[in-house]
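User: Okay, second chain of the day. Same drill as before: sequence in, structure tokens out.
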Amino acid sequence: MNKIVFLLGLWVLLCTGRTFAQESPIEVNPDQACSNEVFVVVENPPTYKGGLEQLAKDLNDRLRFDKKVKESFLIRTLINCEGQLFLLGPFDPVGSSPLSQTSMALYELQHWQAGIQRTKTVDCYVNLWCKIKKGKIFIN
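Assistant: Same drill. Structure tokens below.
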């Protein structure tokens, strides 16, 4: 029954064209966002030029992890309406953890296309699930 209610609600949401936007629950520097409305879901979400496989390749070209490292983590970002990536999650910018290293390498890769909602570029939250296995990083 719950599954049917969920699917019905999802269908209504998709058919009405409503979107999810919210006031930023995370303190976002006004210089980072183009507006005070940051989208969670949009018609065309932000994309890395070349897709997530290219992003993983670019990160693997920059980073080297020991083959024994096996770790998963979430990197929270804001991609603004100009396609600039800003890191939101807690991490140590000078740390040596895989999270810190990956976050800083990701910040250097500014090859994003902004999200689009109703033909207008918008600010969007993007969560990147990262997994390190056998010395390589994978992005979901």
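Residues 52 and 118 are 24 Å apart (CA to CA).

User: Thanks, on to the next one.
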